[in-house]
Design brief:
By secondary structure, this protein is an alpha/beta fold. The protein has 15 helices and 20 strands. The strands form 4 sheets. Strands 7, 8, 9, 10, 11, 14, 15, 16 and 18 form a 9-stranded mixed β-sheet that branches. Bound molecules: ligand BES and zinc ion (2 copies).
Amino acid sequence: MEVQTSAGRYQEQDVQALAVAVFKDEKADEGILKELDEAAGGVVKSVIESEELKGKEGEIVYVHLASGGGLRAQRLLLVGVGERDDYNPAQISQLAGTVARFLRGKNVKTIGLVARAEKDAEKMAAAAAEGATMGLFEPDKYRTIDKEERVIEKFIIIAEGADEETLKRSAERGRIIGESVNFTRDLANEPGAYMTPTNMAERAREIAEEFGLNVDVLDEARMEQEGMGALLSVSHGSEEDAKLIILKYTPRDANAQDDGDLLAFVGKGITFDSGGISLKPGENMELMKYDMTGGATVLGAMRAIAQLKPSIPVLGVVPASENLPSGKATKPGDVVTAMSGKTIEIINTDAEGRLVLSDAICYAKKLGAKRIIDMATLTGAVSIALGDVNTAILGTDQELIDEVIAAGREVGEKFWQLPLDKEYTKQIKSDIADIKNVGGRKAGTITAAAFLKEFADGVSWAHLDIAGTAWGDDAKPYRAKGPTGVAVRTVIQIVERAARAKSSDQEAEVPVSAAS
Ligand code: BES
Ligand code: ZN
Ligand code: ZN
């Protein structure tokens, strides 16, 4: 799909279908709807007056128009977007996804979108391009029959009178972000056989090469040298070697010696989680291919960051491993020593995510990270607590947590903070080692985070448990079912916000005499 923008009139766009946002209780006898109604031969008024469309979010009316009217497009899609006053970029993203998916289903090849929000055409264009790109993702890569083969050739974002250059630049940003979310979804969707730690490292190398990132991949021998006993204990049972993938983005104008407040993203990359010796039940085990989604989120975000070129450096760290049972596998009761020197009693080999993350967090610190956000499909318990609506967030730095929540709100991703009082740490005290990898039945998401906290001392740290939100069991009008790519957009937004804050700080430091 080619995403285009136009500051021209919607009536004159050379597209098969025109999609227009309609606000709640909007009347057809004023403003743009009146104009549209006249151009479309009275159909808008009749749809609204018959109350077929009241403008509620998600409502859709699709009509074919008689030729010879005032629109070049021959089909019109009216989509309710709810209250005008609450209308925001996150909704525009979903609107564009809904429009793209719906019209692809009608075999439409060229679309014009009038998302309204003329006052902030810049954010609108980015959100629309992102949403349309994300909306078209399908997880049917391995289908040979009934595969979605229809493609949208052209998607024009229309904002009459807006600045052409700004529109174009914004849509390009949106496209990059949408494609990076789809990249993450694609990795998450891959069967374990095709997405081994080695394959994942290969994908990381490819994006590093294509978009300009530094890449390093530690093999098991190097992990041994670093003393990463926790990470290595997870891959013991597998024929596939674990990999620790490192990506680094450095802005061109950065002082090479000074990483400042280096921000790092660490993502759980368990390419298949069978549970190991503490084997999971068979039902739904196939879904455990997506246990590397945290890692895929880091790779997707780094892929976008490399193209968006913010002014701050960013580190991405992905511990990738399979978790399988075998004669060589780690057993419940074993004790391993993490890179930090802490000893861990393995109570349950299915609580492996926290093991690989603990060494990855230590390594991120070794590479100079000062602020760390980790993301992981870490606990089944998070789905019980928050379902598939909110991602759990916990951490040691309230400012960082608030930043994540605020960035999420801007892109339409919800985070809900869970407490991390020190009392929870008691649950992971071991009788024979420093800590154990399971904290009992109570507060599973929190005790998993309490475990990670043991390794995040000395830095500002937040943890995202995406186990409930990374996979959509049902399709939505704006996305297919399957991998959601949750948190990719939030993470990108965090980086862009931090970069903007840094540049405005620097501007403020310029002496008044030199500023003019
Ligand atoms: N990968 C799972 C968590 C998970 C479960 C992700 C369902 C997505 C959907 C994780 O490694 C795990 O198995 N956690 C255990 C921890 C327990 C043994 C303390 C869990 O949640 O049951
Ligand atoms: Zn597990
Ligand atoms: Zn797992």
